[in-house]
């Protein structure tokens, strides 16, 4: 067992991830084995959910350690299939401390009807995103085509890094959101999912 796995800092990261999974599950954002959750560790590695488990019922051994290359520190551990999308965000911005991915109904359905972005306008809750100070503005949420080749998907996401205040959506799949801490990432996820749910309801009204 690596030294990091024995420290309180590792335990903190695991607890954060387990609590985030439970919270996402309460909202119905991680059906079946969908979603993945990670936190940056003080030594630069990443704690991330093991592939294929239910994220609402995580136990401590459902979280494993990977390097910034996305490879498991412990041979034989299988990290999330989408680990490289997490690593990409951590590599892009050293201030990012947590990354969340969920599969909500709203993000799945809206992205299937969208072009290259979903634009959110006139909602008070837009102010949950960094740099947004008024409802009287538009927040662009990029929509990327789904791809089972995650390394290739990273190359499509790359040009938008640094200009996604609310996160991004993968078409027919789900959202990626991040923050300096797990609490900040969860607040942004809640804000984005609330707005996507509003947008879906609005469109059902034909508006
Ligand atoms: C239930 S299928 C969902 C997966 O294909 C994937 O998109 C996902 O979010 C979870 O994959 P995982 O490898 O458990 O992190
Ligand atoms: Zn997914």
Name of the CATH superfamily: Class II aldolase/adducin N-terminal domain
The total of beta strands comes to 8
Order of strands, main sheet, comes to 3-2-1-4-8-7-6-5
Q: State the end-to-end distance.
A: 56 Å
Q: Strand count, sense and closure of the main sheet?
A: 8 strands, mixed
Q: Tell me the CATH architecture.
A: 3-Layer(aba) Sandwich
> Please, how many helices?
6
* Nearest-integer average pLDDT: 96
Stretches where pLDDT is under 50 for at least 5 consecutive residues are none
- In total, the number of domains comes to 1
Structural class: alpha+beta
Helix content: 25-40%
**CATH fold name:** L-fuculose-1-phosphate Aldolase
- What would you call the shape? globular
As a whole number of angstroms, the C-alpha radius of gyration is: 16 Å
Task: Please report which band the strand proportion falls in: under 5%, 5-15%, 15-25%, 25-35%, 35-45% or over 45%.
Answer: 15-25%
| The level-1 CATH class | Alpha Beta
Topology:
Layout: H1 3-6, H2 8-26, E1 36-40, E2 46-49, E3 63-66, H3 83-92, E4 98-102, H4 105-113, E5 117-121, E6 138-144, H5 150-157, E7 168-170, E8 174-179, H6 182-204
Parallel strand pairs: 6-7
Antiparallel strand pairs: 1-2, 1-4, 2-3, 4-8, 5-6, 7-8
Helix pairs in contact: 3-5, 4-6
The structure holds 5-S-methyl-1-O-phosphono-5-thio-D-ribulose and zinc ion.
Zinc ion binds next to loops.
């Amino acid at each position: 067992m690596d030294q990091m796995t024995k420290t309180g800092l590792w335990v903190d990261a695991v607890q954060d991830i387990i609590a985030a999974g439970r919270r996402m599950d309460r909202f119905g954002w991680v059906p079946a084995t969908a979603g993945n959750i990670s936190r940056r560790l003080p030594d630069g590695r990443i704690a991330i959910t093991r592939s294929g488990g239910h994220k609402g019922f995580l136990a401590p051994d459902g979280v494993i350690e990977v390097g910034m290359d996305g490879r498991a520190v412990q041979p034989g551990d299988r990290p999330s299939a989408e680990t490289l999308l997490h690593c990409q965000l951590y590599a892009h911005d050293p201030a990012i401390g947590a990354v969340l991915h969920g599969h909500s109904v709203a993000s799945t359905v809206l992205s299937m009807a969208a072009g290259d972005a979903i634009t959110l306008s006139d909602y008070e809750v837009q102010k949950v995103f960094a740099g947004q100070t008024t409802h009287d503005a538009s927040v662009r949420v990029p929509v990327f085509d789904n791809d089972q080749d995650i390394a290739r998907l990273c190359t499509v996401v790359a040009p938008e890094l640094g200009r996604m205040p609310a996160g991004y959506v993968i078409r027919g799949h789900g959202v990626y959101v991040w923050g300096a801490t797990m609490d900040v990432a969860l607040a942004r996820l809640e804000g984005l999912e609330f707005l996507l749910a509003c947008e879906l309801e609005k469109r059902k009204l034909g508006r």
